[in-house]
Amino acid sequence: MKKLVYLLIIPLSFISAKAQTTAEITNEITLIETQNNDRKIQDYHTDDLPWHGRRFKATAGVFFPVNNTEVEVNGTNGNIGTDIDFERDLGFQNNTVSFFGTFEWRASRRSRFNLEYFYLKRDSEKTLQKTIEFQDHTYPVDARVSAFMNNEMIRFAYGYAIISKPKYELGLLIGAHVLLADVGLRLEGTTQQVEYRDRVDFTAPLPDIGIWGEFVLGKKVGLYANINYFALKIDEIDGRIISYNLSVLYNVYENFSLTAGYTGLNFRLDVTRPRIDGFFKWGYNGPTIAATYSFGNHVKFYKH
User: Fold this and answer.
1) How far apart are CA 290 and CA 259, in angstroms?
2) Shortest CA distance to 177 belongs to which of 123, 237, 104, 230?
3) CA–CA separation, 75 and 198 (whole Å)
């Protein structure tokens, strides 16, 4: 009987020891493979990234801004215009949808040039709840008016990277926002004789300076941020501007990427001129979704 027990114990012990050894080897191999895969994910060169550090980058997307607009236009006969809140007083929608486009040229490792374009067209109709003085006309309470506002924003900027590393850059920006605005009001009368309208259009270039940063967060993920500010008064023109942008990029395939971000701008312009006397205040902020295509040679980064 004892011999039978010994004969059973010895094979079972051998099988158990072999199974334990096999499990340890399997676990070790799995751990090594996991470490190698993690190393492959983390160990990459920025020169191999199709979306980072390329000479040219074109972006087009959709913007969902929340607007806040105030305008005051004084009359040529000395009448003081009404401070008009376009969203509250004229029924403009706060939430709108528009498109934007940008183009970037990296002239060198540290220097880059940017061109941006943004367009927003809005209109409304409303029965007035208060009297409005706009230019040389009075729009009375309970009058039915129609209004429009077309804004185009063009931005030129030069960026210089003070710190330029393969996975992150920090630098300064200098440029200008150029606003092309067209604003109008019309009294909707029952006859042509009682109808009248006013229209003001102007172009306002405002310089700005700022800081920017670009970061490689992963093989397919990048982050970009900038903020700009400036205030300027020249003779009869007084303007100030602040803008900001934060966006995250995800590389979908080769040179093609998608970006999601949040951007905003606050702009005020006071003008005292014979043709136009008053102020224009416009602010917006909201999310963006865009597609980006990067092409051209990679710029050369240095680790030192």
Assistant:
1) 5
2) 230
3) 11
